[in-house]
Amino acid sequence: MSVAASPASFSVVPAQRGLRTGRVEDSVDEHVATTVREGLTSRPKRLPAWLFYDADGSRLFDAITELPEYYLTRTERAIFAEHADGIVAEAAGGARLRFAELGAGSAEKTRLLLRAAVDRQHSVVYEPVDVSASALDGACERIELEIPGVTVRPRVMDYTHGDGERFHLGPMGVDERRLVIFIGSSIGNFEPREALRLLRRVRAGLKSGDGFLLGVDLVKSENTLLDAYDDAAGVTAAFNRNLLARLNRELDANFDPEAFAHCALWNPAKSRIEMHLVSRVAQQVSLGGLDLAIDFACGETIHTENSYKYRPGQANELLEEAGFAPAANWTDERGWFAVCLGQVE
Ligand code: AVI
């Protein structure tokens, strides 16, 4: 276990939109409210990782991806830089390809694939899928400007929920194949059962020849993994604690984020990095927006994230279980990260 004992040296600069100024938000998001009530009244206490990503949390995550210890982003980017042409050729199999990406993000790594597709077929349709329309806005405009030949068709959709429901992305040309991209080790933040359910839903909305490109972080030395989730500059600690600051802003809570230590630990039995917030003292916290008071014992934790690490071959097993035929894998020379292509037969 590694606990960051000192306060984070990385602080959040309030976003420029006038909303994140420390005052309580005007209205309470019901989904956030229900989730937080459930999570903080259960034992052990837990909060889901999606709560990290408010405006401040998203900026902190972008900062994490640049950290020397956080090898994931740059390793996956290097795989794409080296193999984009091969990935596109393998997925296209002679047809025209169009891309759908789960989670919009900055699409920084996807650009490498889009460029390779434009080189190959002159133009390409890119469909970023996200629950948040605002997350899609900026990224889309920039890509069309930066890569002539790319047409962006954003889709606002909650791809993480909707048990049993089909995942519909709309019609395509006769000679087109769709490649659904889910990269950045995002699958690692899903429980194994949820991951399988998500892939099955996506598979149900695809046709023969379409593909799924999955980026997974692989098991490696415990120290390397722990450093990636407990960096020296304290950015990951700030990311973890921002969750409490978010509850202060949105739910009128009075958490003192520094009264909680950031803890990252490797759980070998579950093959996952866990993040927790550990109460440094016995304390009571009130959440005015929920009319709720929560007691914490000294050392009691809130479990905030799981990040599953795959062993080689495991992503292909997942693809197969979801109904895709494993078609190709690309990895880096250290074997730290894998990009796996599954196809619908
Ligand atoms: C977004 N996700 C893949 C990141 C991860 O590595 O699990 C989130 C993260 N948590 C701490 N650092 C980064």
Could you characterize what this model shows?
With 345 residues, this protein is an alpha/beta fold. It contains nine helices and 15 strands. It has helices spanning 30-41, 55-64, 71-92, 110-121, 133-146, 192-204, 222-228, 235-251, 314-321; strands at residues 2-4, 45-46, 96-102, 124-130, 150-152, 155-156, 176-182, 211-217, 260-267, 272-279, 283-287, 292-296, 301-308, 325-331, 337-343. Helix 2 (55-64) packs antiparallel against helix 8 (235-251) and helix 3 packs parallel to helix 4. The chain is globular and about 65 Å long. N,N-dimethyl-L-histidine binds next to strand 13. The site of N,N-dimethyl-L-histidine has 11 residues, from strand 13.
